[in-house]
User: What shape does this take?
Amino acid sequence: MSLAVISLAALLLVVIVSCFSKLNVGILSLVAAWLIGVYLGGLKLDVVLGGFPVPLFLILTGTTLLFTQAQNNHTLDKLAHQAVRICQGNTGLIPVMFFVVAAALASIGPGNIATAALLAPIAMNVAERAGISPFLMAIMLGNGANAGSLSPFAPTGIIVTGLMNKAGIGGHEWETYLYNLLAHAAVAFGGYLLFGGWALFRRTYHEPESQQAPLDRAHWITVGVIATLVFGVTVFKVNVGMGAFAAAIVLALTNAADPNAAIRKMPWNVMLMVSGVTVLTALLERTQGMELFTDLLARISTPGTVTGLIAFLTGLTSVYSSTSGVVLPAFLPTVPGLVTRLGGADAMAIASSMNIGSHLVDVSPLSTIGALCIAGAQPGEPTRRLFNQLMAWGLSMTLVGAAGCWLFFR
Assistant: This one.
């Protein structure tokens, strides 16, 4: 049995365990990568651990530290109140508001991950206050952030533009962005209504007077620091993780928040989970397991089915891997070859299916955005249940994306 097949089998085992066990699948993934890479693949441990996602870990650590501080000093409570006031008591409008805000912010520069990192703690706080399902809030916020991910100004959009230009299908930046935005709006609002969001419009929520006290010094400092971080990320392209670390230091030095208390409350289990799975996925790429999928696709697809199949393939891969860092750089360059082999296929349709299929699944808890939503859930929330719900949602989007792309791009 080849190392590629063994690696794929290991990833499948991780998926199964994540659905039926309380074991942190990040630990399982690290052990699996170590055993397969070192003892079966003959790789050095340093090479295997080279797949550890340092930038992702820093983003998760920095942002959760900052927003845990903001949670501990009750600033997020105050911001949650202001967000509720904007909706004038209509509970159903609250998740809609976060979708729109996330899509707009992601589109103007920070991108989907930075936007989710900035907004997820606030959105999940609002959900807890207003009695909104954390699952509904997560799919609205997550899809809102992803809706703006392929903007020509966003990091992933810039990557995709470069890859499509090299593949000979450039000049479609705004078309690519709008296709992706519409797809995420469709699944977000469809899921919101399907899972009970419509019932929220019959409810009203007004916070009690005890929650309407004005902001004090610590709150204003925290708001100013967060606003500065948002401005820096949006305008000056500051790394959101490192910027969040700097912001957390400012809060500590001004006595606006207690950093040690925040560190103790950070969701380390979530960060370990995502990082560990990424190490195993990196090994999968090194052993050429990804190529098995590509070869299979070329053999079984036709010009009429390739869009649906490629959306399913990229979506399934993206559930466990980086969309912008792994999936799209690996698959978009194959578009000219697929068009040539299949004969008569539409290159733009295939590329769009890759873009949409890989992004629709990114509210999975094994993706950064889903992990940020879980990390932002309030203490006492059933995070294991939210994990399973988002896992089911992410996997189901592989089928939804495949069906949608097949129907729209056929």
Observations:
- The chain has a mean pLDDT of 87.
- The chain has one domain: 3-409.
- The two ends are 37 Å apart (CA to CA).
